[in-house]
Design a protein that fits this description.
- The complex is a heterodimer of chains A (237) and B (334).
- Helices cover 33% and strands 25% of the residues of chain A.
- Chain A is of the alpha/beta class and 237 residues long.
- In chain A, strand 9 and strand 10 form a beta hairpin.
- The longest helix of chain A is centred in the C-terminal third of the chain and has 16 residues.
- The radius of gyration of chain A is 18 Å and the shape is globular.
- With 334 residues, chain B is of the alpha+beta class.
- Chain B folds into two domains: 194 residues, no CATH class; 126 residues, Alpha-Beta Plaits (2-Layer Sandwich), CATH 3.30.70.3040.
- Helices cover 68% and strands 7% of the residues of chain B.
- Chain B contains eleven helices and four strands; from the N terminus they run H-H-E-H-H-E-H-H-E-H-E-H-H-H-H.
- Chain B has a four-stranded antiparallel beta sheet.
- Chain B starts with a helix and ends in a 7-residue tail after the last helix.
- The chains are: A alpha/beta (237), B alpha+beta (334).
- At the A-B interface, helix 2, helix 3 and helix 4 of A face helix 1, helix 9 and helix 10 of B.
Chain lengths: 237, 334
């Protein structure tokens, strides 16, 4: 297989995916989608549209009832539970509520994502990677600050640095601008766009239409568990 | 696992136990109480076994015979009995007339299941032994053991039992024999000790099980609280791809830490309690034979460590497993 055909392979592919919870809620119905490597896609939709389920299926926190999901080469429908950590090591997650550990400073919060993988990285490597990640999000000078000393936007940038520190192929951002002011929201999405330009695929859930309008990226719209709009390649489906 | 990761996780486990020190303390307290009670039962059981062993060493009974020699004791035998012998003694009053019959009687006793050996003590032997014994103690023997009175001792069978379990039944069987006049045995003491030992065994098993369940519930609850207090960290760990084993290890280490700390405290506390109790006992009864704590210290510590590790590891393992499978969400809001 040639390198070009490898890069053309989608990093995320849903084929006829449906998800119904044991309570009977139909969260997703017959979803078909392909997200290519290096793409930046917004996932939009009202509450209950199926956005969270869509993200949970990508992270393999939930399993689809029918259909096939391929993420970064892993077939999630056949994947055993013990293999899930391997999938997640290929992605970085940014949460709406930042999820910084209050008792750890900025540096340790980012380093935590490296420590818990039990990798070979030694102290010097961890320091180097964490410093790089913090520099990428513009927080090189805040390494010793505690989370409660930072603004909401800065906290979210720490969360972004933590998602980046293990050099993932894919960033999953669940409403990363939900808890920050509009100016900071632009900064966060600008940062994600910068990261995307360096080759990392970004999938971001958002409610903020102005961001979707101003940043010209792919938009996947969900409604009642179905994809109702997708401007893949610039054309709205 | 890399040594660096192990150090990191061990540190996290101990930090976690310290961060939730009140609950950890409660767990240690309950575990210590359980271990000390279990230890006390073990020591009581050992002491009862020792006492029973001492009695078992004396598991000898004396079966006195309906002996003609004894019937003649006193020198004044009524000759009035019709149908009696030259001394006027009725044939039914005695069974053993000579040594052959006495040895036959001993053989009959030896056939009983629980009997290990039987030694025949002739009336003459008994008289000589007792005379010597009384002389040794400076007692005046002529009044009762004077030759003019004859021999007050009947022949006896010195019976050594195999074990204490059927002690009472064997004594009863000997008593029922025609030639048996009476049996001298420490049945009551043997029975009491046997029942104490059996009661302690049964009680110890039940108490052990109940206390183990209590320990499990308390340690599980501590681990559960720790887990919920660290759910933010767990969600991040899972989201970035930490394995379940990696997530679990700090909690297991916390459980082990609580278990080991409890074992050490229990050993010290039990040593102190036992020492005070035995010293008090020995002041009152200096000749009482008591199991030394030093002889049991290692075994008890081993048992405490085993209980501590078992409770710590099993509880933490299952609690975190349950949490990771059913409750821990990586994505949903915490």
């Amino acid at each position: 297989m040639s390198p070009s055909s490898e890069s053309d392979k989608p990093i995320i592919e849903f084929k006829g995916v449906s998800k119904t919870y044991p309570s009977g809620t139909h969260a997703l119905e017959d979803v078909n989608i392909r997200i290519k490597r290096g793409e930046f896609a917004f996932v939009v939709g009202s509450s209950g549209a199926g956005k969270s389920t869509f993200m949970k299926l990508i992270m393999r926190e939930e399993k689809a009832n029918t259909g096939t999901i391929i993420v970064n080469g892993f077939d999630l429908t056949k994947m055993r539970r013990r293999k899930v950590p391997m999938l997640r090591r290929t992605m970085g997650v940014v949460f709406q509520d930042f999820r910084l550990i209050p008792k750890m400073n900025v540096f340790d919060n980012v380093a935590f994502a490296m420590h818990v993988l039990g990798t070979n990285a030694n102290g010097r490597q961890i320091r180097k990677e964490v410093s790089n990640a913090l520099a990428k999000v513009g927080l090189g000078d805040k390494a010793r600050s505690m989370p409660n000393e930072l603004s909401g936007g800065e906290q979210q940038r720490v969360g972004l640095a933590r998602a980046l520190v293990n050099s993932p192929d894919l960033i999953i951002a669940d409403e990363p601008t939900g808890n920050v002011d509009p100016n900071m929201s632009y900064e966060i999405v600008s940062l994600l766009t910068e990261i995307n330009k360096r080759g990392t695929t970004v999938l971001m859930v958002t409610h903020d239409h102005s961001l979707v309008r101003d940043f010209k990226h792919r938009v996947i719209m969900l409604d009642s568990g179905r994809i109702v709009a997708d401007n893949a390649g610039g054309d709205e489906e | 696992m890399k040594a660096r990761s192990f150090r990191y996780l061990t540190g996290e486990g101990i930090k976690s136990a310290w961060a939730n020190r009140l609950m950890s303390l409660a767990s240690v307290g309950v575990l210590v109480a359980c271990m000390v009670i279990i230890g006390l039962f073990i020591l009581l059981y050992q002491n009862a076994s020792r006492a029973l062993g001492a009695v078992e060493k004396q598991n000898v009974v004396l079966a006195y015979m309906k002996d003609y020699t004894w019937a003649l004791y006193g020198g004044e035998v009524e000759k009035a009995a019709e149908g009696g012998d030259e001394n006027g003694i009725l044939p039914d009053s005695y069974v053993i007339h000579n040594e052959d019959e006495a040895l036959e009687y001993c053989k009959e006793i030896e056939k009983l299941d629980n009997v290990e050996s039987v030694e025949y003590i002739s009336p003459q032997d008994a008289l000589e032994r007792e005379t010597q014994n009384m002389k040794d103690r400076g007692m005046y023997v002529d009044s009762i053991l004077g030759e003019e009175y004859g021999n007050p001792y009947s022949g006896a069978a010195k019976v050594t039992m195999k074990g204490m379990d059927d002690f009472a039944d064997t004594v009863e069987a000997i008593k029922k024999m025609d030639a048996t006049d009476s049996v001298e045995a420490q049945s009551d003491l043997a029975d009491s000790l046997f029942f104490i030992k059996r009661g302690l065994t049964t009680g110890a098993i039940w108490i052990f099980v109940i206390l183990l369940i209590i320990s499990f519930v308390v340690v599980s609850n501590t681990i559960r609280i720790t887990m919920y207090s660290r759910k933010l960290e767990i969600s991040i760990m899972k989201a970035v791809g930490a394995t379940d084993a990696f997530v679990r290890i700090p909690f297991v280490i916390e459980g082990i830490f609580i278990g080991l700390l409890s074992a050490v405290i229990s050993e010290g506390l039990l040593y102190f309690c036992y020492r005070v109790a035995t010293e008090t006992l020995l002041k009152k009864w200096p000749k009482v034979s008591i199991v030394s704590y030093a002889d049991m210290a290692l075994i008890l510590f081993g048992i405490f460590v085993a209980i501590g590790l078992f409770a710590g590891v099993i509880c933490s393992f299952f609690m975190i497993r349950k949490y990771l499978r059913r409750e821990g969400s990586e994505f949903s809001a915490i």
